[in-house]
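Extended Data, panel c. Modelled sequence:
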Amino acid sequence: MIVRWPKQIRMGRRVIGDGRPCFVIAEGGVNHNGRLDLALRLVDAAADAGADAIKFQVFNPDLLVTAGAKRAPYQRRAGRTSQIEMLRTLVLSPAAIARVARRAYSCGLEFLVTPFDEPSLRSVVDIGVRAIKLGSGEVTNIPLLRAASRTGLPILLSTGMSTYAEVDRAVGTCSAAGCRALALFHCVSAYPSPLDEMNVRVVSGMRERYRVPVALSDHSAGFAASAAAVALGACSIEKHLTTNKRLIGPDHAASLDAGEFQQLVTTVRDIEASLGDGAKRCMPAERQNLRHVRRSCVAATTIPSGARIRLHHLVMKRPATGIPSNDVDRVIGRRARRDIQPDEVLTWDLLKR
């Protein structure tokens, strides 16, 4: 069965997708370092920076990694000896997450959570999230994809480290399990991602291939990749936010601070404003200059009364107050009603057939 995915996804009062403003997500992730006060500060920073949403991660370390799992290179910044030790310092309780959600909604932000296991998925559904964000590691996690799809909520799926064949299967799994609203996030799962490996054109490719809203989860330094994605039609941009890049933890160093995140939002909005609607026309700001920089048909020499006008009689000059230069072919062959002086701007009343 071919699913006709909606081009827009509604989350409460927010709508993301074609024809809507880019939805900017501040990825708080685990940058709260397991502290409720820091999580609340991240919410406030996201709101102050102009983000549309704040997102955190919820997981049970014992359901996420084995006791002997080693850390990825970027996770070594956390200063722990194993993944599970690190992750146990980065957990917020369900009660804390619920409080953070209330703070986000009171600030006018959408609240998103990335669950990493089925109990965590159920807990975020219970607090009333309006979409499920799944990380790149879940593209091949068929059971979690199915469980998320069965919630009936829209799924926002990151696709780092994956091939089109893997994304095809993930999309098919979500569809078969009952998902009816899906957005895909192009992502490069390196922290930070090398700019020359961001491959932002995948945004266009995924939009064409899957016919769903496509976004960018951007782990590169700076704003260049995000800017390119917005120009290519990304419906959303996700970037990590921290209150201090020097804090101990796996993601702080690759995150934006509050001031940088505000610059990102400004950049996104400026790009959106510059993209326009694609209809080529003379814009209001140009109209005042049109007559001054376009050209008219002007006499290059004296044209005697009754003379039939030839091209050598004319030169195209500013201003555009007479016969427009693009009407020159209509001027050729007509006769002058009177003597026309050199450098005189031609008007139709000076000519006859």
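The chain has two domains: 14-275, 284-352. This feature is highlighted in the accompanying rendering.
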